[in-house]
Amino acid sequence: MATARLDADLQGTPTDQTKYHQMIGGLMYLTASRPNIAFATFVCARYQARPMVKHLKEVKRIFRYLRQSYNMGLWYPKDSNFELIAYSDADHAGCHDDCKSTSGGLQFLGENLVSWSSKKQDCTALSTAEAEYVSLSAWCAQVIWMRTQLLDYGYRFNKLPMYCDSNIAIVISCNPVQHSRTKHIDIRYLVSFYKGTC
User: Fold this and answer.
1) pLDDT tens for residues 10-39?
2) What residue segments make up the domains of the chain, in order of their start?
3) 117 - beta bridge partners?
4) How far is CA 15 from CA 6, 20, 49, 55, in A?
5) How far apart are CA 105 and CA 90, in angstroms?
6) I need a labelling partner for 78 at 20 to 30 A (CA). Which of 37, 44, 46, 84 fits?
7) Topology of domain 84-194, CATH
8) Sheet strand arrangement including 102-109
């Protein structure tokens, strides 16, 4: 889906808001079993307050994709290994309306995809490294929650691999020493951590 061109489009032609809400609601329900439409659906869901014709076209495009790929879905084989692995990613200023970034992440239990999300970040990141770091920290909390849930079932994970495609975000998370280039990240996200040492 060409989400890069979606914006609020205040000059566009409005469409029926109730119909748009119903279509988005159906797609949101489907994202529970179809992670491949999660990002596109959540981008379209941002415009439910004032949907325009171009937003409706993108929603219809998702439905056409679903019609062509109705036989796709998640497959959970019973003989896979039981290792928890996480992936995190983010874009920088992907939303044209407020320049906020979008975080995304996946969790695999062995070969089985068990958790996924796509969400617009609460703050405006000043750099790609900051957007990736925010995504990594949010997804780390999700991984810790998943590890706690699995502990209730008797599965203990001491090391959980998390993959991120930003070397700078990985370096910042592994070495939280305050540098001049990462001072704004420290102030925004790590103040509570350093409160006792400052």
Assistant:
1) 788 999 999 999 999 999 999 999 999 999
2) 3-68, 84-194
3) 105
4) 15, 8, 11, 9
5) 9
6) 37
7) Nucleotidyltransferase; domain 5 (3.30.420)
8) 112-120, 102-109, 84-90, 162-164
